[in-house]
Amino acid sequence: MEKLLALFKLKEHGTDVKTEVIAGITTFLSMAYILAVNPSMLAAAGMDQGAVFTATAVSAAIATIIMGVFANYPVALASGMGLNAYFAYTVVPMVAGMGITDPWKVALTAILVEGIIFIILSIFKFRETLVNSVPANLKYGISAGIGLFISIVGLKGAGIVTTDAFAIVGEDGTATVSSSTLVAMGDLGSPQVVLAFVGLILIGVMWHFKVKGAILWGILGTWVLGIIAELAGWYVVNPDAGVYSLIPNFSSGILPPSLAPTFFKFDFSFVAGHFVNFAAIVFAFLFVDLFDTVGTLIGVADQGNLLNDKGELPNAGPALMSDAIGTVAGAVLGTSTVTSYVESTAGVAEGGRTGLTAISTAVMFVLALFLSPIFLAIPSFATTPALLFVGLLMMKSVLKMKFDGDIADVVGGFLALVMMPFTYSIANGIMFGIVAWVLLKVCTAKVKDIHPVMWVAFGLFVLRIITLVAGV
């Protein structure tokens, strides 16, 4: 035990083994949905669903262990949402349109190259310098923005917030989809919505009475209530509508599916014949992962009071290297880009402060390989209360923001805050924040305040904007 305390410096961080383990389990339960979502999404791209499940769990465990041991941060990693959607619904169809067989192999090749580039950037400390060069107001805006982002992710997962879309049928019988607003309230009478709100109240009550593991118990309590609702006939299972049983099903056994269908399945021949297209694919993966990771690490570190007096992230190098190695491992195993997870803030909110939290999360991913029916039965509406409550906690960073003084800091921080939830992307929030910050520094004759690495980030974002405008 003493060696464990010394390795992770638990005393120095004001924590203990029990707190760290509970925090790690909480983080896992908040991000366990990826074990269901990722295999389903990549299966749509032509990959073997069982193999992707195993690859997702194993790559998450590997990357998270590296993060815990070498960076000593309470940050978990797994295949990133958004990146897997780009993989399945943009890259694969585009490559398939070129007549390439098994286009998902090209996407995995791009992820491998992206990971190698990240390792190189991490060796030269470019990513570390970027993290520590982001102005304080931008850091706090990013942290609060992530709080809003994970809140809307949770609201969407439970159906509390939904797309405001309806069909208008013309005289000729054709229908066009329209909307009066971008989002709308879901069905308040649905069991998912009701139970999500009940779970939030449960967490709030337990938090008030300082119950240890309040967020974890909130997730489990909501899930149990869901099972009761299913048995009572209120929660109606309908797979065609995406409503699955909440009761674990062990009929298929507990051994994890083989990795063989996706292991080391690369297509390097595509690179030689379609270099420009391949470079564009790699850049898109590189861009989103780079700044999502930066934003996540800043947000988690701020939530856990891990930033130093200068607002910098100590030991950022190993943390970013862990992310890069995880990406390479994920590509080799057969899954989309592995990246740091913002749901790590759920564990931090439970008191997680060291790499032992990450190790605990990694162990849960390993167990998930053999107990997948249990973990996959936890629905998204059961994690919604946790995401909402953590979002609430992260919003405290707004109190640290300055809304007067240097206009570049003010506008940059504000855009980072609002663009994340409103564009449904952490990377977009950082993009708008940094571009606005640099432009305002230039326009207010404060060019000397701009760190060279911020110029590089600005250039990358301008290039990304050009590619977005060009439809790449």
UniProtKB/TrEMBL annotation:
Keywords: Cell membrane, Membrane, Transmembrane, Transmembrane helix, Transport. GO terms for cellular component: plasma membrane. Its main location: membrane. It holds the Pfam family Xan_ur_permease. It is a multi-pass membrane protein. GO terms for molecular function: purine nucleobase transmembrane transporter activity. It is found in: Cell membrane. The chain crosses the membrane at residues 21-45, 51-71, 83-100, 106-124, 145-169, 189-207, 214-237, 268-288, 363-394, 414-440, 452-471. Belongs to the nucleobase:cation symporter-2 (NCS2) (TC 2.A.40) family. Azg-like subfamily. This is Guanine permease.
